[in-house]
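Comment thread on ticket #2218

A.B. wrote:
> Attaching the input chain for the structure job we discussed in standup.
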Amino acid sequence: MMTTILNNILISGTVIHFVSLAGLACYGIHRLWMLYWWRKVLRANVIAGHAPMAMDVFPFVTVQLPLYNERFVAERLLDAVAALNWPADRLQIQVLDDSTDDTCGIVEQRAEFWRQQGVAMEVIHRQNRQGYKAGAMAEGMASCRGEFIAVFDADFIPQVDYLQRMIPHFSSPKIAVVQARWGFLNSTYSWLTRIQALLLGPHFGIEHQVRCHRGMFFNFNGTAGIWRKCAIDDAGGWQADTVTEDLDLSYRAQLKGWQFVYVDEIEVPSELPESLAAFRTQQQRWSKGSIQTARKIVPRVLKSSLPVAVKFEALAHLLANLGWIFGALAALTVLPSVLWRLQHGYTLWMIDIVLFFFASGAILFYFFIYAWQRNDRALLPWIPLLPLLTLGLAPTLAKAAIQGVYQRGGEFVRTPKLGDEVAAALKQRLSSYRYHCPPLTNGLLGLYSLCPLWVAWDIYHGLGIVFLLFFPVGFFLVFTQQMVEAYTNAR
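C.D. wrote:
> Ran it. Output below, let me know if you need it in another format.
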C-alpha cells in the first residue's frame, strides 16, 4: 500500500515537473518570437509610434504625483515637475499625497514655495487610503482641468522638456496614451540593481516597441506616461479591484478602441529598489496584480472581435506571471522526478536539457542580444545571475500570483525609495520593512534542492548536473542576500 502511494506521488511529481518546465519553455519561445520581430523593427529603421504633430497650440496639461510616505524623494519630484517647460497658465500640478508620516509637511512646505513662484501646485491629502493609488488618482480626476494627464511616481525625475517632447505624439484623437522609456539613476549601485536594469530594459526596448509597431496591446506603466483625460473616463476610470490599476485601465481603454504609443527615444530617469526586500515587494505586487487583471480582462479579450494574433499576444502578456508558478513547481518537484527515474531506470536527462534550454537558454539569449544591441556591454557579465535570482524568488512570487487568482484588490504596498541619501537612509528603510519571506525559507529550499543533486550524482551526465545545480544555487543566492540585509538592519 505504502509502495503504491509513494509511486503515485513520484509519478505525479514527475508529471508536474515536466509540465512546469514545458510552461517555462513556452515563455522562452515567446521571448525568441519577440526578438525576431524586434530585429525586423530595427532593420526597417522604424520608430514605434506615430509621427509627432506640430506644436501650434499648447493644450492644458495636468500633472499628477501620487505619493505615500516618500520623505526621501518627495521634494526632488516636486522641484523637477515645477521646472517643466510649459506655459504656466496651461499647467496644473496635483500632488496626491496619502502620506501618514512627515512627508506631508515636506510636501506642503515645498508646494507653498512653488505657489509663491507662480506655479499652480495643489496638494490633495486624503484622510484614508481607500483604493490606494487608484483611489488617489480617481480623487484627483474630480478636480483635474487638463486635457492631458501626465503621471509620475515619487522616484521619477522628468526632464524640463518632457511635455514638449511627449505631447506632440498625440497626433491622432484616437491616441489615449503616450508612454516614455524608464531610465535608471542607480543601475550600477549593486549586482541587484544591475540585474533589475537588465530585466526592465527589454520590457520597454523590445516588448513595447514590438507590440506598438505591430498594433498589439501594451500597457501604460503607471508612471512616465501621459493619458488623454477623456480616454480614462471612456474606459471606466481608475478602479481598485486589482493592485495593478495601470495595467487594468490600459486594457480596458484599448478594448474600447483607443490607441497607445510608445516613444523609446524619450527617457525619464527613475530609481531602482536597492534591497532584495524592496525588489520582492515590487515584484509581488506586479505578480499578483497582473493575474488579477488577467482574471478580469481575459474573458473580454476572448469575446472581442480582435484578430487572433492580437488576442494571443494579449493572453501571453497578461498571463506571463504564471511563469513564477511554473518555476516554483519545477524546483519543488525536481526531487520526485529524479527518484522516479532512478526507480524505473530512466534518466531522461536529454528531455530536461532541451526544456531547460528553452526555459533558460532562450531567455538568457534574449537579454544578451538586447544588451549587445544597445551597446550596454557592462550588463553582459551579470546575465548568468538572471535565472538564479528569478529561480530563488519563484516560490514567493508564485504565492503572490496564486493570491491574484482568488483575491480581489488588496493593499498597495509601496516600494521604498531612497533618493540621493542612500547611505544615510539605508538602515532606516530596512528597519521599517517587514520581510514577507524570512531568510530561513530560502535556506531550507536550498538544502532541499541539494537532495536530487546528491541522489543523481552517479547517473547524470555533466549537463544534467549543471541543470540540477541551478536550483540550490538560486535559493542560496537569495538566502545569502537576505542574510546580508538582515545583518545590515541589525547593525
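A.B. wrote:
> Thanks. Noting for the ticket: Strands lie at 61-67, 91-97, 121-125, 148-151, 175-184, 225-228, 259-270.
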